[in-house]
Design a protein that fits this description.
homodimer, alpha/beta, Isopropylmalate Dehydrogenase, Phospholipid_synth_PlsX-like (chains A, B), phospholipid biosynthesis (chains A, B), phospholipid metabolism (chains A, B)
Chain lengths: ~325, ~325
Amino acid sequence: MKIAVDAMGGDFAPDAIVEGVMMAAAELPENVAIVLIGKQSVIQELTQKHGIHTVANIELVHADDVIEMDEHPTKALSQKPNSSIGVGFKLLKEGQVQAFCSAGNTGAMHVGALFSIKAIHGVLRPCIAGLVPQLAGGYAVMLDIGANADCKPEVLAQFGEIGSVYAQYTFGISQPRVALMNIGTEDQKGSLVAQAAHQLLKEVYKINFIGNIEGGDLFTGVADVIVTDGFTGNTMFKLGESFYSVAKQRGLSDEFLDKTNYESIGGSPILGVNGNVIIAHGISSPLAIKNMIGLAIRQVESDAYTKIAQALA
Amino acid sequence: MKIAVDAMGGDFAPDAIVEGVMMAAAELPENVAIVLIGKQSVIQELTQKHGIHTVANIELVHADDVIEMDEHPTKALSQKPNSSIGVGFKLLKEGQVQAFCSAGNTGAMHVGALFSIKAIHGVLRPCIAGLVPQLAGGYAVMLDIGANADCKPEVLAQFGEIGSVYAQYTFGISQPRVALMNIGTEDQKGSLVAQAAHQLLKEVYKINFIGNIEGGDLFTGVADVIVTDGFTGNTMFKLGESFYSVAKQRGLSDEFLDKTNYESIGGSPILGVNGNVIIAHGISSPLAIKNMIGLAIRQVESDAYTKIAQALA
């Protein structure tokens, strides 16, 4: 198994990325290698400093170009096919790696996935899934947390299916409880889209739809899959992540609150595409990168995207 | 000054309401009285038990009927004009009380306000404002947190004006910083509505619009007024409130997290109507009721709704 990592993406790249890769490499399973993609002239000093050439489970792949954080995703990808992001998707599409991870330009990662490995046949809108720690242990999958700010009801209903398969195979949850994030428990509550999505979710026989949940239920273990549009999902996910920093500012230390720290998960998968793609916060620290790689390995092992494709066939 | 309180509304009414009123009465300023509205036969035992007749600053007003939590707001109000909610609004409209508070049927409170004291001339959509504690002290006003699940851009822009006036007069903040809750800092980010609202907010010369903020900024003191649609606002506000219960479940005790406890604010004002109306969570405890009354007094003193009417004239 090979996990490709973009050395150039992120606010603290390449240093933070390379450090995170070194941390991950120290604990990798035997059959796993990391493919670090970056501009040779930029990362050479770092790779030498860390002695990467001596590490058996890290390979280096050169990429000429870099897509900056503020570049327009589609333009950047067509103009810079030899960027670390472009090269990463090329390797993924060709099957030379089994996952591609980056803390770089999120839009470019999303568009890049759509262009290279493409959306799974039948998927209306690929999305980004956020993993939310639950008080009693484990995680819930919230989707979408940012790829699609506006969603039609049928797109939300499909997120329920996609999230359910992901939770089943990546977290081993049988019959994952699927809930719709809403502003009241009654069926008729919510925005027009939420009301319509609620009705559609009720009709998806393949999932265990438990109805609406509210904002206060994010961490309480009432659902395994939380369906929402990308706008609501993003604002809530970021508020949830801030719990850790609020606690830290208050001088509080707690195992559960540590899990709300973005670093502890490391990344968010793009679901609904024909491959394993994980994106991470621009501010990713070495620890976040290390954990993102761990998530990628888990996802490759679960073969979630193949299962999602089968479920939607 | 007279503050009317609905004795019958809420999951733990009338007991919790009456207790909260007693707590408030013990600390009321000299010129303030509470008008407790409820069905005589139901609250008689309680009022006797608490010796309300002996408390100088509490008056009792009888109301024949009760609007239940699950009743359809508009139907209930027209069929039950002598409900505690109906009577409360009657007293408010007639100027016999200066504020009306209830932990009862939120929809009925909202519709009741629209029917009786009516929307301020020029207000597109009255809304519910949530008070969000800030790490460095004080509060931010978030609106809308639930009255309008779907909002047009111009409605959001107007929330910015309304919230700004409220923050200025109720919290004494000069030139309140108004931000739009969004999924990225750049102007073009967000849902279609958020993008359009962003442009409109830029053009409202009367406010100090500081641009977009993200979910992680809810508590960090970057804004005094947070504009959002009722769906996003409700989910975020409830998630924010849950910080207190999550911390409690983890055995953590902290002054700031205590402030995220819904009980500590007690209520949320309906803004954009010609009077002071505060609604509280159905689960309101006596402490929440007491604090809701405190908020009502503050709001009456600030005369916020008159200032809002002037600003929009």
